[in-house]
Structures
1.
Amino acid sequence: MATSFAPTFAEAPPRASKTAGLPTARLAAFSTLAAPVAAAQVPITNFLPAFYAQTFGISLAALGMIFLAERLWGAFADPFVGVLSDRTRSRFGRRRPWIAGGAAIYGLATAALFFPPAGVTPLYLGLALFAFYLGWAMIQIPYLAWSGEISGEYHERTRIATFVTVASSVSLLLVMLLPALIDQFRPGDDRLRMAGMGAVILATLIPAAFLTLRAFPEAPAPSALRQKGPGLVTTLRLIAREKLLLRVIFSDMAVTFGQGVRGALFIFVVTFYMELPKLGAALMLAQFIFGIAAGPIWMTIAKRFGKHHTAIAGELVQVAINFALLLLAPGSVGLLIALTLAQGLAQGSGNLMLRAMVADIADRHRLETGEDRTALFYSAFSISMKAGMALAVGVALPLVGAAGFDPAAAHNSPAALQVLLIVFAVGPALAHLASAALLRGFTLDQETHEKVRRELDRRAAATA
């Protein structure tokens, strides 16, 4: 992608005032791209391992290694996408070309994963996931950076993150609705279930990309931007020096690890431990419905107490919920439903707040160095997401497999099922506890950030 042309967008994005905020309709249009991007995440984590294990006979150990390798590849590539996006020069802006190219790759890879041919091999799965995560990075990193550049207001960024989170949750609601319905009328038809979810993703990708790319103009790249981006070692040093960014990165890694373990084992627990095979997709659907309702609730709490305090509170709630899962017993449907819905209400707090905090950290970095590295910081943040998911799948699936659990077997021993439940409950509980601990003493609160923004605005006015 060319990096030597000056941008032609002279118009800056509409600045949010403290009273009016960004136009709701345009913000809703911008957030639509989160729908197809997020829609594949839970199916790939929750349904795809079980589908490829049961339909094509790929072992849990092989699946764990494939997912671990692919997520680590994504974590390695993301910083380069972030740096190149920050340095890109084109008449379309810095973010748009990457999003458009990534959408094409993402669509092709989604079709390969959700509509596989007969006789799939581990090599086929590995190549499809390689392309999927490349396309995902090309969309997600510039998109997150752009979302942090639309407004510099502390609470308005929380509002933007809330719109994006709600759009993600709505897409997950749609993509989970089909397998829930299919399980009621065609139980056991895994191919139909995967095809339905893939169809939702592909059908929403093109219109969502169109709406997002036209929602807001991009702000001109900062004039101090150097034409040559930093190398790998310099990039790693830049990230390592940002202590607050490292806190957010590792906190999010813990969050995604907990969510990944829970997601990878959820269908197995409901189907084999709880002996409720028809309830798995329906429970996940209900969880995401409650997750949609929780987005505005957490946004309201954050306005009162601040982002990092809200994130800590949400993570501690998750710790209690996950430890309570140890009380589950076969047939305890009421407790399972209650804990699943509670997770839906709590799960969005960390994801939402941490994403909004990255843009604040990028502002402080720009004030201190004069360099705009928003996309780089979001790419580093995405490393935590992929590394957390990689570790979750790479640890959870081989661990329960080593304990004797086999999803293709007609029966599993009580000991294997008990280990399945323990990993499902304790792993996420400890991860959310670590996430909360990492956010203690976070210093970039609303008052500090407002001082940063005032100084940035003063410098911009002086330059103008």
2.
Amino acid sequence: MSESVSVDALIARRKPGYSLEAPFYTSQSVFDLDLKAIFGRHWIYVAVEPEIPEPGDCVTVDIGRASVIILRDDDLQVRAFYNVCRHRGARLTPEGASSVGNLVCPYHQWTYGLDGKLLFTEHMGAEFDHSCHGLKPVHVRSVGGLIFVCLAKEAPTDIDALAAAIEPYILPHDLRNCKIAHSTDLVELGNWKLTMENNRECYHCVGNHPELTVPLFEYGFGFAPDSLDDNRRVHAERYDQLLAESHARWESMGLPSREIDRLTDITGFRTQRLPIDGSGESQTKDTRVASRKTLGNLPDRSLGGLSFWTQPNSWHHFMSDHIVTFSVLPLTPDRTLVRTRWLVHKDAVEGVDYNLQALTEVWTATNQQDADLVAIAQAGATSPAYEPGPYSPHTEGLVEKFCAWYIDRLSAHRGLHRDLSAGVEVAA
């Protein structure tokens, strides 16, 4: 059986409500397909505008085998280009942040403006047409200061719908007037889909995330009512009442808070503002703000946490005092980069307005705990005893939505028509 037929067969027999078959997590061929069909065709979250505040500031991100430069041009616009010199293909900038006047190839010094136009070459002759050799552009879109890129020739247009829906939620937090207080890169020893699946549920939180479950209510991520004892049932009912009261209070302040779930869109997303336990202020170990500089013109510290998830590779938490963003980038079938950024008000001073440890300790611990869980899930997927297991309908619904979205996007890429009612696929 050819590899192409094998992949199509895997897609066709995916059973809704169950985890994916092992090759989706272990196969190099499936991984290569993911880079092409998912990360090569969809909007991928890669950076925040505070990384490139001034003209000439740039950040370079690797997405699979592609390297992309995101920069601020002289007109303060955000642009993106493939990190490939048009001479002999050398990379112009290394991965990470830098600041440039122009983009100069380190190999033969071909020089490009911040608009991607080729400005200068030596020894190419009088008849050489510079206008035909500018940098190749990449689709780029800032949504409230979150920067997305798309490597496809034609990018999905529903990014407009995402922006229209989500910007009223996140703009009050004024991300563009923040700065990065801390950033980490963590390589998880698992497939990128296991990283995303782990993020999409909190079934595992109690017992695995002692720091995160201080500010977060476990009931905010689903539960089976018939599994609760009388005491926990009372707590769950109080949480539902708190959620309704909090949404009413926050929306009276002009802060949209209620759930939007469009995870099945091509550019899938979901958002909701959730209460925080304790003081209700921030995702910290004492549930109080880690920075005394409130973001934007927010009217209160006790604004819970606004969560924003996107398919296929990000999640974000917006609070009154800081923002945490997460970008997931596949490296190999069993290695995944999780890039986390903590942002505070641009005028906040470390040691005066905020304590870095208090700001970062919850998610630093949680990220490592999640990485450990992803590693044991990856190890299990390589076992001959592995077979897809059933999701909890109460606590793993968002995992199912992620996997269903993923399978549907592979199907669309490979020209298959998915019969969702039957859970099978046929050639289009």
3.
Amino acid sequence: MLFNSYEFIFVFLPIVFFVYFYLNSKRLTVGAKGFLVFASLFFYSWWNVVYLPLILSSMLFNYVIGNSLAFDNKRGINKGFSKNTILTFGIVCNLALLGYFKYADFFILNLNLVTDIQVEPLNLLLPLAISFFTFQQIAYLVDSYRDETKEYDFLNYALFVTFFPQLIAGPIVHHKEMMPQFASKWNLVKNYRNIALGLFIFSLGLFKKVVIADTFAEWATNGFDRAVTLNLVEAWATSLSYTFQLYFDFSGYTDMAIGIALLFNIKLPINFNSPYKALDIQDFWRRWHITLSRFLRDYIYIPLGGNRKGNFRTYVNLMATFVIGGLWHGAGWTFVFWGFLHGVALCIHRVWQSIGFRLPKVIAWFITFNFVNIAWIFFRAKEWDDAVKVLSSMFSLDNVVLSPKLMFLTKVLEIDNIIYDRVFCISEEGNRVIIFLVFFFTIILFSKNSIVKLLLFKISFKSVIFSSFLFIYSVFQLTKVSEFLYFNF
């Protein structure tokens, strides 16, 4: 079920909200918690009920392993097994499940390419949210191993894993972040300020998704998937359209998830903080998909040795972490290369820092943004040829098409092969593309982000009108329902 759908907004969410708080008002706390788990599993099953046993089995397995890690080695099922053995077994099983569904066909196709063996692909449909609930539960097992969390109630654990606002595309939460909130007696009753905050940020996220992101999506799809060739302007418009689509799509999802959770008095961790304002690549990863960055740092980079074993190992660990991060996003060499690019950029940034050089902020931002924009091309492209098509046209002067109104630029640019004709052959909305890119570029760079707006939010007539406008306008745009991009990962 999608957040940006009529059935979710007008049926599922209101029913879950009122039943949950009704049960709590009758002091049926366990019943309310059980209902929320049931509703979350229903939300998950709406997409494909076939995979409901998968998430249930995964939860039960990790609950048992987590409990065994939390117990003393001399007690219970830990007897005869070391904590290291149990943790390794749990992580391997989780990765095996993820690997089978997400990477089996990728492995088979590459095996067929390099050998004479022709294995038939399994053509498995990727279970929704498997990457997110797998990483979340791996983090839980490691936290249990470290004695940082203990959970002996399966219902509590099920709620931690399945809580529907963050189930499908994050944020990747820790047990210690969530369960104290569900246990708090103050969170068991309706909080009208939280409701107002939740509706405000949900409306903002909905607007970002269905009005802004889905508009850029059409132009990005035209350039990447439909156009055979691109001129210089079309190529830049294509790459920037996807860069902005991903920004507003992911930012919109994050806002909606935060808003829905606030309705239930739950505060999800910040997962998105104006990443395109970053002045270096390290700063970018402190702002983009913050909980994934936290996971990669705490459960991959640091266990590999982090920066504690010399410069060479530090660079190797950075590269390994981001190649894994790229592969986590998708089973394809374009994703691996995207992760590799970011790993290289972080290594270069570390060297740059060690030398002590500092660039002016404008230049630092310009380099960072353009690197991120170029790297996103490989993230978006379905095939290498699509990435090469866009990237080569962005930096080629062999196919420059400008509006006839700009004919005076010929002498200024000293380029002989400029064609003055219709610029956007891949879209009927050439002027609108440029206007949207310029306008939302300005919004991204100079406006307050959603988190700041949430902190500054005050219930007033003006805020009610603003939220209502965003919500109503967005609802009228729901005729073209589309998935969030991170549902694919």
